[in-house]
Design a protein that fits this description.
Layout: H1 2-32, H2 60-81, H3 100-110, H4 115-124, H5 130-143, H6 148-160, H7 164-175, H8 182-194, H9 198-211, H10 215-248, H11 259-262, E1 274-275, E2 281-282, E3 289-292, E4 297-300
Antiparallel strand pairs: 1-2, 3-4
């Protein structure tokens, strides 16, 4: 009995002592660890999961999901940690998000048909590295030649770069795929005739909003639509301000002076001006407009804090 007890207790004491030693040693090493330069954590992936393809007993899809979730959390974390008041949707390089492409590359290597990963890459990567965004979409098309949405994503990236002919060619190729919607053919004509206008941009982002496969991509498209609405509102008001100045020889003292004219304005897409509780004109996100009397133009209130764009 005593012999059996000793055989049980002795290993238990050894294991407990080992765990205690590991805890103490880990804590000491943590305190002794040298500080790392900014951006070091973005130098490479800890594990290149795509190398595990074929060795994880059919769990590639699960591992691909993990990398995709990491990519979502990665950008979200970058935005939360940023000290910037606003995030420029057109240029995210100030966030140093260099691991986004490797994460999405891993996800789509492990699962070449992972449409949500391609969709997210198309929405965010162009503001980080347009060529990587093109590479990811080209990879998707090679692996999924029957998926017209990948042609839509690639066409969008070319459009963002103002490469309208390349965008038109891409949309045309996608429009020939079985099941492709009329939108694809419509974009071919738009790219060739009016690739840079707001009407085309609105159609583009409305389509992306309706088909977004994750909340960040959906919110990104929605903010783009708000931006277009705001530009249309400012153009409409500034035309009225210019007319007022030409007829009276001065800029209005306040927006109230042109309210009668504003009531007759018809905004694109059936939109209407928004008025807040303070009776101020506000943009679609609730940011007030103010009158710049030097330029006699309506502008966004510079004192208002615009929320971080894709948090």
């Amino acid at each position: 009995m005593q012999s059996n007890l000793k055989q049980f207790i002795l290993p238990l004491i050894i294991v407990a002592t080992a765990f205690a030693a590991v805890f103490v040693l880990s804590s000491k090493l943590e305190h002794m660890r040298p500080s790392l330069p900014n951006g070091y954590q973005d130098s490479d992936l800890v594990l290149e999961g795509k190398r595990l393809k074929g060795y994880v007993m059919g769990a590639e899809g699960l591992l691909a999901d993990w990398y995709w979730i990491l990519s979502l959390q990665y950008i979200g974390g970058k935005i939360v940690e940023s000290s910037q008041e606003t995030i420029n949707l057109d240029d995210l390089t100030s966030l140093t998000p260099w691991l986004l492409y490797p994460y999405l590359d891993n996800a789509t290597d492990l699962d070449p048909k992972f449409s949500a990963a391609y969709s997210y890459g198309a929405a965010v990567l162009p503001a980080i590295d347009p060529q990587k965004a093109i590479d990811l979409m080209a990879k998707g098309i090679r692996n999924n030649p029957e998926n017209w949405r990948l042609y839509q994503y690639l066409g969008y990236i070319y459009w963002r770069q103002k490469k309208y002919q390349a965008a038109a060619d891409t949309y045309e190729a996608g429009s020939k795929i079985s099941g492709a919607p009329p939108f694809m053919r419509q974009m071919v004509a738009s790219m060739k005739s009016k690739g840079g206008d707001r009407e085309t941009a609105r159609l583009m982002y409305q389509q992306m909003f309706s088909e977004a496969e994750d909340e960040q991509s959906k919110r990104n498209a929605q903010l783009r639509l708000y931006e277009i609405d705001s530009l249309e509102e400012r153009d409409a008001v500034n035309r009225i301000l210019l007319d007022f100045k030409q007829h009276s020889g001065r800029c209005p003292a306040a927006f109230a002076d042109i309210f009668p004219e504003l009531r007759s304005v018809t905004l694109p897409a059936g939109k209407e001006f928004q008025i807040d509780r303070s009776n101020d004109i506000v943009d679609p996100t609730g940011i007030p407009y103010v009158l710049d009397k030097k330029k006699c133009e309506m502008v966004l209130d510079p004192e208002s804090k615009i929320p971080k764009s894709i948090s």
